[in-house]
Description:
The protein has 14 helices and 24 strands. The protein is of the alpha/beta class. The protein folds into 2 domains: 2-21 and 236-428, UDP-n-acetylglucosamine1-carboxyvinyl-transferase, Chain, CATH 3.65.10.10; 25-233, UDP-n-acetylglucosamine1-carboxyvinyl-transferase, Chain. It is elongated and about 65 Å long. Mean pLDDT is 94; it is low at 120-125. Uridine-diphosphate-2(N-acetylglucosaminyl) butyric acid binds next to helix 1, helix 5, helix 6 and helix 12.
Amino acid sequence: MRGVEAFRVQGGSPLIGEVRVRGAKNSVLKLMAVALLAEGRTTITNVPDIMDVDIMARLIERLGASVTFDRAARRLDIDVPAELEQRADYDLVRQMRASISVLGPLIARLGVADIALPGGDAIGSRGLDMHLAGLERMGAKVTSEHGYVLASAPERLKGAPIWLDFPSVGATETLHMAAVTADGTTVIDNAAREPEIVDICRMLTAMGAQIEGTGTSTLTITGVPTLTSTTHRTVPDRIVAGTWAVAAAITGGDVRIVDADPQHLDLALDKLTAAGAEVTGEPDGFRVRMTDRPTAVDIVTLPYPGFATDLQPQFIALNAVATGMAMVTENLFESRFKFVNELIRLGADVRIEGHHALVRGRERLSGAPVVATDIRAGASLVLAGLVASGETLVTDVHHIDRGYDSFIPDLQRLGADIERIPAPIDEAV
Ligand code: EPU
């Protein structure tokens, strides 16, 4: 589907000023699923006003909850009834892979969950195998039919030791959401340690869950009979904060990034410093200044605390205009270099060899029409457009709207020459 809007960017203005970061997309979507674990009203604050939150709201409403989103206050009130529906339909799940995060809460509350498989995934194949194998270890029966995965545990789930092959964010979340009300103790080894996982553990703990090892790679969860609803503030979005940091550096700007936690970005900010930026901590966030052309920096993506794959495209854009040459290695998602062809349309010199990208910095990029292929690719193309000479037109911006709250107004406030326009009619046949 082609987006109906586009961003028109005129390159050349350094970004200067202050920008505020809201709560993390990759946390809040799961916190909304966590709310399903307790009857009553759960309130989530610091919620980003992004498309994925609207999709998740529709999904949990379909399951029986009522959701009120006060966009101005960035607050969600979720009322969860005693009875929930067990089925998450394909029309919503296909729009957002994170829909899978209702699997854990549904099986915990109802003993059964019937979830459409996100596009392209088959049961047991890469993508969901660790989620499902973990549930099976806890006594669930898992089958797949007509594009749906059906998990059932008519008796309560039973606590079990679980070793993940890889510290998967999604599998860690599904399994700890399922384990909080299971019978006995679950130990998840090689668990993911992302700040968003810590956020979910904190909310679950406030609801009465017993979790040890929060923030470590071993989570020990002792099941309790029921959880109670709570009020929770979403952790700041480190990927959005990191995107602003690169935006400041790539444009030779000076930006204070507030309501952000620089500790969640240690490695990325260290790379920016190596690229020549001046990064300073501030009580409510951090500041990034850049005066010279950046120096190219090597990047290797890994699970947290390694370098975030969700910042890889933005750093490729930075390297594309840097002095020197850098190797960027992507270890999490094999298709994450897809956007590089678009960057090349802007004049970038990037060669892909398997999961490595060799980037030779160019003094100048030149504006052109490009297509956003996913959220972070889209952000990266906007960053490149900010420094390209002339006009860049980014289409399919619905991808960017999935994860960036007030992106265009914030860029405009910082001095960027950018606007949202109706997408030109696609004449290609
Ligand atoms: N994987 C499996 N089997 C599984 C689970 C995962 O093979 O059972 C594979 C995946 O196919 C992938 C890799 O392991 O190749 C990483 O997957 P992981 O489960 O860690 O990631 P995720 O939960 O699908 C979340 C974020 C991503 C982010 C990754 C890694 C959400 C909604 N998504 O995905 O965010 O890149 O963790 O940090 O939380 C984004 O925001 O742009 C984004 C893609």
